[in-house]
Fold this protein.
Amino acid sequence: MIEDLRPLGLVEAARRLRIDPFELVRIEVGLGNRLERLTFAPERLAVLARDGGIETSWLDETRLQATPAVRVREAFGELARRGFVGDKSTRLDNLTRGLSLAEADTVRRASPQMAEEGLLLIHSGPLGALVSVQPGQEARLAAVAAGTTESRGLLQAMTE
């Protein structure tokens, strides 16, 4: 009970948010907060998640039981399903939440290559790397997610 009231260190706060500690610092700085101490009140984590655009895993229980390749594809498919197209973007690490480290690494490596292919838009903001579907590419990305068409960038990242 008392433990729930104690401030959390950087690593523990980041673990609870399921982000890298560096990303937690980036969010705090991006939100204009001063970092005199790297401790966080437990109740502050919900505010940081909301204001920093941190979402929980996008993959439901059924998809979590799928193969690694399907989970990686589905992470990209969720962008269009959730309406992250054009100027409406989300944090790149939201795509990787719930994936294994290897799967998350594949998503991170594939994303810039898929942007070069014209499937995704990626830009950096004060809160981190942001990603969305290139307008007009929603159907193509859905086909990549379904496995009915290929993305060179995704295929390369999956085979490295």
Notes: The longest strand covers residues 120-125. The chain has a mean pLDDT of 88. The two ends are 47 Å apart (CA to CA).
